Amino acid sequence: xxxxxxxxxxxxxxxxxxxxxxxxxxxxxxxxxxxxxxxxxxxxxxxxxxxxxxxxxxxxxxxxxxxxxxxxxxxxxxxxxxxxxxxxxxxxxxxxxxxxxxxxxxxxxxxxxxxxxxxxxxxxxxxxxxxxxxxxxxxxxxxxxxxxxxxxxxxxxxxxxxxxxxxxxxxxxxxxxxxxxxxxxxxxxxxxxxxxxxxxxxxxxxxxxxxxxxxxxxxxxxxxxxxxxxxxxxxxxxxxxxxxxxxxxxxxxxxxxxxxxxxxxxxxxxxxxxxxxxxxxxxxxxxxxxxxxxxxxxxxxxxxxxxxxxxxxxxxxxxxxxxxxxxxxxxxxxxxxxxxxxxxxxxxxxxxxxxxxxxxxxxxxxxxxxxxxxxxxxxxxxxxxxxxxxxxxxx
Length: 395
Fold this sequence. Notes:
Blueprint: E1 2-7, H1 14-26, E2 32-38, E3 52-55, H2 66-90, E4 95-99, H3 105-113, E5 117-120, H4 127-140, E6 143-146, H5 149-155, H6 160-164, E7 166-168, H7 185-195, E8 203-207, H8 216-229, E9 234-238, H9 246-258, E10 265-269, H10 274-280, E11 283-286, H11 295-302, E12 307-310, H12 315-318, E13 326-328, H13 333-345, H14 348-365, H15 368-383
Parallel strand pairs: 1-2, 1-4, 2-3, 4-5, 5-6, 6-7, 8-9, 8-11, 9-10, 11-12, 12-13
Helix pairs in contact: 1-15, 2-3, 7-10, 8-13
């Protein structure tokens, strides 16, 4: 079976890591994934080992040059529909899987070719756009995926017809990629040296592309409060500066300087070595104000790094507060700082037990092969047939 998986952004991030991890597992079920990526920047993701192609002007509305983008979108819409329809037919696509409610052009192409459509509802469009697109999702989709029970209650449960199509499917983590024992103290020290961070300094970090939804403002404000109590603490911000929001990175650098953190907070830019970065941290922070189900939280848990995360999206379902991490309200730098400092007051044994429980939770609930199996079950329901299971292929 062939699945065309469409992501609206070609710049590497959480949705790409999640989709690629599951695509590798789906091959164990004789399911091949092909990727369709909307074009948003020159640093394009190329999924290793998978066929992919770019398609410009797939996004209807943007904050950056919205009027020009909308005109270009409308002009290219017929061409893009024809291109995607041709791709679906020429590659023998069995299912179209779109990532994001606003990623509706591939959904329209699936409708034109009468290809079953799985719609992954994991973005946060403005309310007027949501009201416009939800009827389209209800009409075209064969199945809808949301990334948490709480998200289902908010997004699809109010619409009985849509709710009947809805499946809860969390991200899946490849535990071989996120194995703490693979990262030695020497390697961690070398990476800290690269960033100019002392080997013994308490290090608190955030990983996420630089956009306001990730809450970097609150992270920096929390860092200032942490520094007052933990004077040798250092802070790391890892993430790409987005050309769709070019001023934001500069604003965050100015805020860091104004907060007295110019020499204590490092902006590391985009990095692909997420597991290695996590291995250098003493505490990982998710300060987002809006999320669905952020992969990086599960990755930090798998790496046995203490986690402090805001209660957004499915985060309260991922982290068992006080047992596998700490959950705080969004937009509250004081709560973020207090939670981070809590880890330094915990007895070492309690802290070890917490991160071990976090790793175990990922192993039992969010492992990639488990999630891929559930995704296969969604595809089976859409196609009305069983897919092959690992170890059942004929020679």
